[in-house]
Amino acid sequence: MPNYVFVLDTNKQPLNPIPPARARELLTKQKAAVFRMYPFTVILKHAVHDPTPKPLTIKLDPGSKFTGIAVLEGENVIWVAELEHRGWQIKDSLGSRRSLRRSRRHRQTRYRQPRFNNRKRQEGWLAPSLRHRVLTVETWVKRLCRYAPITQIAMELVKFDTQKMQNPEIDGVEYQQGELAGYEVREYLLEKWGRKCAYCDKEGVSLQIEHIHPRAKGGSNRVSNLALSCERCNIKKGTKFIDEFLKKDSSRLEKIKLQAKQPLKDAAAVNTTRWALFRALKEILPTTTGTGGQTKYNRIRLELPKHHWVDAACVGEVEKFNLLTQQPLRIKCTGWGTRQMCGTDKYGFPIRHRERKQIHFGFRTGDIAKVVVTSGKKVGQYIGRVLCRRTGSFDIATKTGRVAGISYKFCTSIHKKDGYSYAF
């Protein structure tokens, strides 16, 4: 079941989203035209008298790597998406540039003197990799508000209490099997261990929280000492030390020890950006919040699978809802490229220079185009991302791979570059 289609009137004001069959009928009868491909939006060619659009709610499940988005009309989920962030790419790029600058300063070459004392960070400053998460979610909320009559926002204001996660005994918290108790800790462990048994990689079974260093022999409740195990492995391990339990599987033993010491980067990223995102969304529309435990409780109670867009639909107070779509739009942040005119190798030496002109024959790299080749060795139809060259010979990146040497004469732009790539 695909997503509903957004509709605009002749004045570009949002109307009620419609099912894909209804949109196809309007396009076939030429009563509407395609306004935008992603998200798919049509614009009517005739005026609508006395339009009374139904109010919609957009729900968000913010995460460090993915953000789930769901648009609801009452109890009906009509549009869903998963937004993939590029915060770690930004962090790696900044780290690479930093190392190149440092290496240049240690050479006997001309360089700009480092400036340390003339910089001051504003109050509420966020690192670029974290600020990116807030800005991309804000961008998509504003974009959806332009194409749909959204009147309310609901977001998951989850807080990973890293102090409790490291040592739950601070407040005497044990892992009771209550309805909501310990859900944040369990959710973190599920993400950390890939939702499978750490000892046998079994998936799709009930997983139990297991102490790597047994409690009976002095082990603590720190999250670095917790793993997920199926019932069979948990009983088999018992109170054995992990070195004794996995003495015949040294590779798995090293893997578990390494993974157990991983830092809480994802939890820290969510904690840092949650209030900045809430304040940004509050400036757009009235915003309500829900907890992470409440989201998981709703999903388990409704017996729904684990997906980011499903978590978004389960945010807040939920009695029930109808899934009218189960085909999320996959949105991946790709960025707008780089402003760096001089490319360097891994040692920081210049190896290439980019020209200032980006648009060639009406296209630029990142546009999505439909290609119909009528002659030559590459006859056929292709849809994908364009990689432009000033010679007019383009490459098309499709789902099945890259098609090289396509003339611009065969290309028709269907979606201009906007810093994202799309898939279903």
In short:
The chain is an alpha+beta fold. The chain has helices at 20-28, 87-105, 128-147, 162-166, 183-192, 231-237, 242-245, 250-260, 265-282, 292-301, 308-313, and strands spanning 5-8, 14-18, 32-36, 41-44, 56-61, 66-73, 76-84, 150-156, 207-211, 226-230, 287-290, 322-323, 329-333, 342-344, 350-353, 368-373, 380-387, 393-398, 401-407, 411-415, 420-423.
Labels describing this entry:
single chain, 424 residues, alpha+beta, Nucleotidyltransferase, domain 5, DNA Binding (I), subunit A, 4 domains, 8-stranded mixed beta sheet, 5-stranded antiparallel beta sheet, 21 strands, 28% helix
Provide an overview of this structure.
This protein is α+β, with helices and mostly antiparallel strands and 424 residues long. The chain folds into four domains: 5-44, no CATH class; 56-86 and 127-160 and 265-333, 2-Layer Sandwich (Nucleotidyltransferase, domain 5), CATH 3.30.420.10; 162-260, DNA Binding (I), subunit A (Orthogonal Bundle), CATH 1.10.30; 355-419, Roll (SH3 type barrels), CATH 2.30.30. The chain is 28% helix and 26% strand. The protein has helices at 20-28, 87-105, 128-147, 162-166, 183-192, 231-237, 242-245, 250-260, 265-282, 292-301, 308-313, and strands spanning 5-8, 14-18, 32-36, 41-44, 56-61, 66-73, 76-84, 150-156, 207-211, 226-230, 287-290, 322-323, 329-333, 342-344, 350-353, 368-373, 380-387, 393-398, 401-407, 411-415, 420-423. The strands form five sheets. Strands 5, 6, 7, 8, 11, 12, 13 and 21 form an eight-stranded mixed beta sheet that branches. A five-stranded antiparallel beta sheet has the order 19-18-17-16-20, with no helix packed on it. Strands 2-1-4-3 form a four-stranded mixed beta sheet, sandwiched between helices. The radius of gyration is 26 Å and the shape is globular. The chain starts with a strand and ends with a strand.
